Task: structure prediction
Amino acid sequence: MSQALVTANIPVPSVVGSLDAYISAVHRIPVLSQEEEQALSRRYLEENDLSSARKLVMSHLRFVVHVARGYSGYGLQLGDLIQEGNIGLMKAVKRFDPDQGVRLVSFAVHWIRAEMHEFILKNWRIVKVATTKAQRKLFFNLRKSKKRLGWMNAEEVRTVAKDLGVPEATVREMESRLSGRDVGFEAPVDADEDAKPAPAAFLVDDGADPYDTVSDADQSDNELETLSAALEKLDDRSRDIIQRRWLNDEKATLQDLADEYGVSAERIRQVEANAMKKMRGLFAAAA
Result:
């Protein structure tokens, strides 16, 4: 098969720029049915049809975003993880066999995660030492201020904090980052059962069937978008009543809103009922 599949010959929406715009764009790409997926896969496998491969890649970009979000705790940029995952997705499309009886997403998840794991491994040493401008300034000043390799005593912490004009707790936090040792991403081959788990042991596993996972996540995203769109169709008073009665953490009562708007509680209930009826119609139309 052609190496072109993992090069620019299969263009995907660029992650560079607005990440929100990219995520919104890939979620607008239609999801393929199993029959469409198999037909495209066979066309690519048998005829080396790159347009079919491109459709397979594009329809699964939303799943790469979903997987990348599962690794947000590693201190790396979401956009970088998505780019690496997209490479894994293209490799998976190249190797996918439609006759195996599984969905492409279930096969691709291993390739997507493999690329992300490799990226995390390469960047593990530089994660979260100093991530803000203030932390970088403290990082370099603290390196110059430390007089020995060991931990600073209380007097040294007070002196450094005073000299740099920062709280003592901030100095201790940065010192712990500077003093932390790198750890192996994967456990050594000869590690015993009592050894502390390596970071690779904590990588996310979203379930045995990735298709169900991405389908549920996609449905949730669509429902939120539909809800937001429905709220925008309401007038200001109706939107405020629905928001405060049903969506806020602290729910308002009918009487609370009645007192605020200078009407009866029954009138607030009527406005709420009419707004809910209108929103249900919008939900039905979007289904």
